[in-house]
């Protein structure tokens, strides 16, 4: 059995972690990944407090393995989400988009492990100072909300590894065992996989969105909206509307008006491929079919071992 700091910390079989993706990662996906030996995550950023409560209960009923909740710290009802997490004694919480000092010690007092997502060495050091149990370093290639620094995973992981001494999880552009092994060579203790799990059978993403990802080609995503919150999007009519606004030197307020409300839900969850916001990573260009989450975990792990063995023979 494979053992390292992350498998010991989370009590999981494989150092493969599913990302907590807004509108795509409910209890079905989280439980499937955990049952397969990885760590599944419920994405709470798109959920009302009562919905998160329901998803945690269903996830507990579907798996006896550890799972986590992803919690964007800018969530408006974060106090209620924290109460729900503590009430159900969720063993692990991944936080993002905010100051890790705010909730880390409170959660840890309840014996909950805390992991924070960063996109730079600067914030990795702040997280270590805040006392988090592990860090996710997410490169520029990743889908969804991203760092303004635009540092790629290849550059970010070794830089963060050199700066911190706590467990490190690599994210951004990882959808295969080959990529996972590369991240381990750079100093990661585990990988977090997002886009590949969006196209899993258990993902709550709309079928239209899954099909759009499968059909995506190289160059079909772009990081945009850096004036608001940077996000990597699949190019569609909404993206083109944003680009036209940039060409007209649109103000921050004008960009906010174009973005509006519930744009991500419209695209990823409801399947509006024209006017919806389609958050996905660059690696979408290399995803060509929908598979079960357990099958994805198995494929990544087996390829990781196969490539590792082949390289050791060189």
Summarize the model shown.
This protein has 314 residues and is an alpha/beta fold. The chain has a single domain (5-205, 284-312), classed as TIM Barrel.
Strands, helices and their partners?
Blueprint lengths: L4 H6 L5 E3 L8 H9 L4 E4 L5 H14 L4 E6 L5 H10 L4 E5 L7 H5 L4 E6 L2 H10 L3 E5 L5 E2 L7 H11 L4 E4 L5 H10 L3 E4 L1 H4 L8 H8 L6 E4 L6 E4 L2 H11 L4 H8 L3 H7 L23 H20 L2
Parallel strand pairs: 1-9, 2-3, 3-4, 4-5, 5-6, 6-8, 8-9
Antiparallel strand pairs: 7-11, 10-11
Helix pairs in contact: 2-3, 3-4, 8-14
Written account of the structure:
This protein is an alpha/beta fold. The protein has one domain (5-205, 284-312): Aldolase class I (TIM Barrel, Alpha-Beta Barrel). 42% of the residues lie in helices and 15% in strands. The chain has 14 helices and eleven strands. An eight-stranded parallel β-sheet has the order 1-9-8-6-5-4-3-2.
What attributes characterize this protein structure?
TIM Barrel; eight-stranded parallel sheet; alpha/beta; 14 helices; 11 strands; 314 residues
Quick one: CATH class? Alpha Beta
Helix content: 40-55%
Radius of gyration using CA atoms only: 18 Å
Beta-strand residue fraction: 5-15%
**First and last CA, distance:** 24 Å
Oligomeric state of the chains in view: single chain
Largest sheet: 8 strands, parallel
Which regions contain 5 or more consecutive residues with pLDDT less than 50? none
State the secondary-structure class: alpha/beta
* CATH level-four homologous superfamily name: Aldolase class I
CATH topology: TIM Barrel
Question: Helix and strand succession?
Answer: HEHEHEHEHEHEEHEHEHHEEHHHH
Domain module tally: 1
Number of strands: 11
Spatial strand arrangement across the major sheet:
1-9-8-6-5-4-3-2
- Judging by the overall fold, what is the CATH architecture? Alpha-Beta Barrel
Shape: globular
Number of helices: 14
């Amino acid at each position: 059995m494979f053992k390292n700091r992350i498998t010991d910390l989370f009590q999981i079989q494989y150092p493969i972690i599913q990302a907590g993706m807004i509108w795509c990662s409910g209890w079905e996906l989280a439980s499937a990944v955990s049952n397969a030996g990885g760590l599944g995550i419920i994405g709470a950023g798109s959920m009302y407090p009562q919905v998160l409560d329901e998803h945690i209960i269903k996830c507990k009923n579907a798996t006896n393995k550890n799972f986590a909740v992803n919690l964007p710290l800018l969530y408006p009802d974060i106090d209620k989400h924290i109460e729900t997490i503590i009430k159900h004694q969720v063993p692990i919480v991944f936080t993002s988009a905010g100051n890790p000092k705010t909730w880390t010690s409170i959660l840890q007092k309840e014996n909950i492990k805390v992991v924070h997502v960063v996109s730079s060495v600067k914030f990795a050091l702040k997280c270590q100072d805040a006392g988090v149990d592990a860090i996710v370093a997410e490169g520029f290639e990743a889908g969804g909300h991203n760092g303004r620094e635009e540092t790629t995973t290849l550059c970010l992981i070794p830089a963060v590894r050199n700066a911190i001494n706590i467990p490190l999880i690599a994210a951004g552009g990882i959808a295969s065992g080959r990529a996972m092994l590369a991240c381990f060579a750079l100093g990661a203790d585990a990988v977090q996989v997002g886009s590949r799990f969006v196209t899993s059978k258990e993902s709550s993403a709309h079928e239209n969105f899954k099909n759009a990802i499968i059909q995506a080609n190289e160059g079909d995503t772009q990081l945009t909206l850096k004036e608001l919150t940077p996000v990597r999007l699949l190019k569609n009519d909404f993206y083109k509307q944003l680009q036209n606004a940039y060409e007209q030197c649109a103000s921050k307020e004008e960009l906010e008006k174009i973005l509006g409300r519930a744009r991500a839900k419209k695209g990823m969850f409801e399947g509006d491929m024209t006017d919806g916001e389609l958050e996905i990573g660059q690696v979408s260009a290399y995803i060509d079919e929908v598979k079960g989450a357990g099958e994805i975990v198995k494929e990544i792990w087996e390829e990781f071992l196969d490539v590792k063995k082949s390289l050791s023979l060189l």
